[in-house]
Specification:
This protein has 19 helices and ten strands. The protein is α+β, with helices and mostly antiparallel strands and about 450 residues long. The chain has four domains: about 40 residues, no CATH class; about 160 residues, no CATH class; about 150 residues, no CATH class; about 45 residues. It has a four-stranded mixed β-sheet. A two-stranded antiparallel ribbon has the order 1-2. A hairpin with a 5-residue loop joins strand 9 and strand 10. The longest helix is centred in the C-terminal third of the chain and has 38 residues.
Length: about 450
Amino acid sequence: MGVTGRPRRLADAGVLRRLERCAHGLAGSSVCLVERSGPALGLTPRLEARPGLRILSFLALLPASAVELDAAIDRAVADNPLLERVPWRSCPTCGLATVADRCAACATAHWDFEPEATVDWRGDLLRDAAAELPATLRPVLELVVAALDDHGLMPVPPDAPADAVALVVAGLRAIGPPGIAARSRVDCVRVQAAALVADGEVPPIVQELADRWLAEVADERYADVAAATGTTEAAVRGAVEVLRARTRPYVALAGGGARSSPTDVVFTQPEGGGPLVAHVADAAAVGLVVVPDLLVQTLEARAWVAPHREAAQRLFAAVAARGHMLQRVADELAVRQRGFILDGPQGHAHLRRQEVAAALEVHPSTVGRVVTGKVTRCPDGRQVPMAAYFGAVTSTRVRVAMALEQNPGASDRELAELLTRVGDPIARRTVAKYRALVTKPASPMR
């Protein structure tokens, strides 16, 4: 719209129709007309999109990993009387969150592997700890082990002296898996971070983030955390990567990977040779429910309930938006990386995040947020980080490695000619690049 000496009129029907189409395209945003003063003391109307509830919710949990999502939900349930979290578990076959015995994905999956046999991890833990702890603590040890849930957590301590329980928990953590007997999923992350720091494997900032700054980490407020802790933003980002890579909200118990952190995406192939299907857990699958409003008879009661209801709606919108975008990216990967999902690294295709972003009509940074910290499960049982679906052609690296193994004395040119003859055309420079990644040092024959 041009600038004139007097206010422009917006009554034209064609202009209004175009504005309506623009507003429809900004789903989830608040659309308003703002009058701006022009240089000739006139007013120029301009269409602005201000983020509404759906957009803000979308941004809130989109980059959250399993650890951060669980922490956000736990905080919300603790603060909001209208929210509850019913008992749930990781599917014993694929690891997807579910409130049933098995998830919806496994009901239609044709798995190429058999789930690992159930292991009596409580019996093994009790036997190993009994050999290390004094015999006088054996009764308390039995109570503590019995109080552990299916994830190795102890949300409710047993009815025993607190000092004796503390001694037993310390003994369990000395011989058991990291995070055993933690009070909650968030506390499990804190226990694991403290163990890493105590062993000297990571800097103390990792434990400090786990103890005090998980909420800010979930919101990606790295600059604020750096200022509050007296460190650099780069150090905070490094500590966040350590938390994501080396801690889990569940204890890694014997009996299969399904007892570790829940899987974010599960790929199945319901019909042999047919298309792949991506499954993503929703809010109901992680046990998040809203308590019905009971105190709505009076004006005071409605005023008290209103902010809690609004906060609950925001949380559900955030979880739903995260799941929706994760589903869209996973569906795109099921088509573009079918070979990688079914056949492994040799089937990996070159894929950039910009390509997926263009197909979904979103910004590449949105795709980056979606894949951060997420884990997928393939039909053959492989657990693959979602970020591994992007980047250079892994299959080329695999073919070069196999050719090197079969022809250890061949030069780069000879390997390139060999692969080209068998139907894998490749340049000599490409062979040289991947040889450097596969062999150290590379063959001197060039």
